[in-house]
Amino acid sequence: MKKIYLILFTLISLLLLTLAVPREGKFVFEYKEGTPWKYAPLIADFEFPIIKSEKSIQMEKDSVLRNFQPFFTKSMTTSSQQIKAFVADCKARRIQVPERYINYVIKQLALVYNTGIMSPSQMSELVSHRYQNVHIVEGQDAVTQSTSAIYTTRTAYETIMGADSAGYLHDVLALCNINNYLTPNLTFDKAKTQTAREEALNSVITSSGMVVTGQRVIDMGEIVTPQLKLVLDSYVQESARRNETNTNLWRQMPGQALLIFIILSIFPLFLLTFQPKYIENVRTLALFYGLICIFPFLSYIMVRQHWFSVYLVPYAMVPLFVRIFFDSRTATMAMLTSLLLTSIGLTGSFEFFVIESIVGFVTVYALREMTERAQILRIALFVVIVGFLAQFAYDMAANTSISDLDHSRYVYLVASGVALLFAYPVMYLIERIFGYTSSVTLIELSNINHPLLRRMSKEAQGTFNHSMQVGNLAAEVANKIGASAQLVRTGALFHDIGKMLNPAFFTENQSGVNPHDSLTDRDDMAKEEQSAQIIISHVTQGLQLAEKNNLPQSIRDFISTHHGRSKTGYFYIQWQNNHPGETPRDELFTYPGPNPFTREQAILMMCDAVEASSRSLKEYTEETISALVNKIIDGQVQAGYFQECPITFRDVQDAKRVLIDSLKTVYHTRIAYPELNKDKQNGLGIHWPHLLGGNRHQHHSKKS
Length: 704
Description:
With 704 residues, the protein is mainly α. The chain has helices at 2-20, 54-66, 78-91, 99-115, 120-128, 153-162, 170-174, 190-202, 226-244, 249-274, 282-305, 317-325, 328-343, 349-366, 375-397, 407-419, 423-434, 439-445, 451-459, 461-481, 485-494, 527-548, 553-561, 569-578, 586-589, 599-614, 622-638, 649-666, 678-684, and strands at residues 42-43, 48-51, 71-74, 117-118, 133-138, 141-146, 151-152, 186-188, 207-211, 216-218.
């Protein structure tokens, strides 16, 4: 069933990455004006025009628009209509001026209408666009007219009134009401103007030459000059255009999908072969595939949209997080898989893979064990320094001079190192979303000034001392069998926090008075059953305290599993002795569990039982300690408490040896000091307490 999730995550990742991977393939380059070309010589495998720069094309278009002439249509009837109206008003005696004035006005009206009259708003628009000339269309003919020669109603009136001021008096002309016969006869032709404008703009030649098939575009190490940049830009544009219309697109996509699938398959094969325990957890798989795929996906988008450089992406976060929450080998494999996936969408992927792999290996090495959050700052500094050195070495190997170095690449490396500092808040999110606990969080939790631990040290001091001792024993065992010592130590400190609510009912907190003795049988429950329920409740109450204080799930699991599905043996046997012939209600004496399902939880279960039982030994010798450890742990194994966790028989044997040696050290035998004869003692004039310099605690332990 778990392998189904592995296949599902692989297929989802394959789909997303295939859709996002750039289609430009080998035609995606990273270059910048003034920097050397870092790739192999580029040979044009198709013919393409050299596209002018956008600035140059825009300048030519602006020049065309400055000489552009909009179109206006001249009315063929407006002039005759207005002149007829003027003559009619004169005949009707509505205008009473001398005949020669009438003839003058008729002549001037004909002249201004022949030139053309437009509205003041249209004239303002011509002036604002700085059109020097316009096309005037009359019937089938079109003439070019200077904008300054065209009239508005106001300038036409002023022209008629002042055309012959010496021969015609202004006051008499005013009686003609000339304004009444002036109306625009030029109308803006929007359709013709738009068509002509588009034709003019389309006439601008956007190319400045051609590159033929087989022509060398640029050599490796050659500086990208402004002209070469135009050629390279044109090459990329033509490649993209051909890919958009290429009938082989559906052949390219399956090829990319197959390549992505092959690379993606590396990681699950690694897990199946070397780390099968990770496949059992769906959240673990989700975290792995999320970290592996998010950076290639982001890189594909950046390449397709031409956003900055992929060197800006902090790829070192992949091995960083996998190392923090898992192990170095898995971190290395996750890093390599992610970088290989990213390389599919890049040109010059070898350089990218070399630089980022070096940075990733440094990250894994620098984070052998994370014990404080300040390590992220040091790792970011290492990443920047090593990235700088690796990039500089690669540039020198490519015979690039100091003056020709791509300085932006180094700026991006610094920026990616700074971005690595955001790993701290991201790590917190991962802990919350996926339920993992980093070693830094474990160290912070194991601080005895933690509110729960400080409270336990006051309210249940015996339980606190027991938890500290169990933590030390469990850490020794974990170190021996290769488990997480920090995790099991922290779990041990919190595994009995539920005892704080009823501390006096647990022997380690009692001082002569046992409240279990005051319990009496009830109708529904015998006193032994009541005692068992009180003892068992420290697990459920501990879980409630852990949830209330936001302890990580990994720590809560220690609380629920440190007794597994075992029974409160003391009260269970006591009940059977006091109720012979009756059948006990097993559920009242059984812990809720579950049984341990990790090696660390199994270690805690063993150490907790051994440490508690060791306090009841009457004498502490190698034989008694060994017998106790073997009896307890063998009993747990036979009861099947470790069937659900990946602990081996060898691990169990190693745990026994460590516990026996540790308990022998804790409960060591002391030297019995010899007694002096009274006469010799008095003769020497000494007092026994000062015989050995006051060191009354000198002792030794037997070597096992």
